[in-house]
Amino acid sequence: MDHEMLRRQAMAEGFSAMGICAPDAIAMAAPRLRHFLQEGRHGQMEWMADREAWRGNPAALWPEARSVIMLAEAYTPEGDPMAGLAHPDRGVISCYAQGKDYHDLVKRRLKRLGRWLLDQAAKSGEGAEIKVFVDTAPVMEKPLAQAAGLGWQGKHTNLLSRDLGNWFFLGAIFTTLDLPKDAAEVSHCGSCTACLDACPTRAFPAPYQLDARRCISYLTIEHKGPVDPDLRALMGNRIYGCDDCLAVCPWNKFAVAARDLGYQPKVGLPELADLAALDDAAFRARFAGSPIKRIGRDRMVRNVLYAIGNSAEPRLIPVAERLTLDADPSVAEAATWALTRLRAAGPAAR
Q1: Gap between the Cα atoms of 316 and 274, Å rounded
Q2: 135 in active site
Q3: Angle of the 296-311 helix axis to the 329-345 helix axis, nearest 10
Q4: CATH entry, 270-344, from 1.25.10, 3.30.420, 3.90.1200, 1.20.120
Q5: Angstrom distance (rounded) from CA 192 to CA 207
Q6: Can you tell me the distance from the alpha carbon of 350 to that of 89, in angstroms, rounded to the nearest whole number?
Q7: Which candidate in 50, 89, 135, 197 is catalytic?
Q8: What pTM was estimated for this model as a whole?
Q9: Per-residue pLDDT tens over the stretch 180-212
Q10: DSSP category for residue 68
Q11: Any residues with CB less than 8 A from the CB of 162 and at least 6 apart, and which?
C-alpha cells in the first residue's frame, strides 16, 4: 500500500492529517496509565481501570493488527472560545460539543476510508481486515497519535500539532495490513506554561500530568453526584466541558478551519434560566444529535445550578428556588447551594 496515496485519500475524506504507527509503539503508555490509576486521578471513570490491559497495550486489543492509522479531524472554533466567560447569566459549553456529535461524524469518515483501504488491498491481492475506533473503546488515541507523528501530548496532556494547533479530534483504524510507519513526534512545548497557568481548578499536578478529579471537563461530564463545593466556585459558568487550557496554547496560530459543516456551532451561549427549566423530555429534544445528550438532564441542570450560584445574578434566585425540591438529590442540593450563594451576594452584587 502506497503511504502517500493513503494520505491523499484520507485528506479527500475530510481528515486534516494522517500518520501510521505499530500497535506496540507506545511502550510507556501502560506504566503511565498504571500510575494515573494508582493515584486515583481517574475519579469515577472506572472504565479506565476495567480494561487497563487493553488500554495500555493496543497490541493486546487485537493481536492480528499490524498497523494503526491515526487520523486528525479539525473542529477549530471561529471565535474566542473564552468570550462566554464574561456573561455569567449564560452557560459556556465546550467547542467540541457545539455542533453534531463528533463520534458519528468521525466514525462515518473512518469507515469510508477503511472501505477504500480494503478495496485497494483486494485489488492488489492482499487479504485485510480493519477495526475503527473513535473515543469509545479502550484505545489510547493520544499516545498512538504521537507515535504516528501527528503531534505530541502537551503539558495539558492533550495532543497538539505544529500544523493544526490543538483543536482536533482523533480517530483510529487498526488493520492487519503491514503499512509503512511514520516517525514519532517529540514535544515542542519548551518552557511555555500557558495551559497550566490557565486552568481554573489547578488540575495539573505537574507538566504532562492531569488529575481528572479537579478538571472541569471531568466534573461537568463524567462526575456523578455533588461536586466538591470548593471546586464549584472555580467552575464559573462552564456547564459542559472546559476549553481554557486548549484556548491559550500558542500553537493554535497554526490551527486550520473545520471542514465539516457539522461542527458549526448550534448550541451557542444558552441562558442559564432556560436550561434550568428543562425537564427530561425537553433536554433530550434540545440536545438531540449532540454529545451533550449523554450526560442527561439531571447532570446538566446540576451544572447549570453551580453556574447560577457563581453568577451573582439576584434575578436567578427564583430559578434556583424552584429546583430545591427537585426529584434528583444532586439537583436539589445544587439548587440550595446556588440559593445560598445568591442571597449572600446580595442585590448589589451586579
Answers
A1: 11
A2: yes
A3: 10
A4: 1.25.10
A5: 10
A6: 11
A7: 135
A8: 0.94
A9: 999 999 999 999 999 999 999 999 999 999 999
A10: E
A11: 151, 188, 251, 254
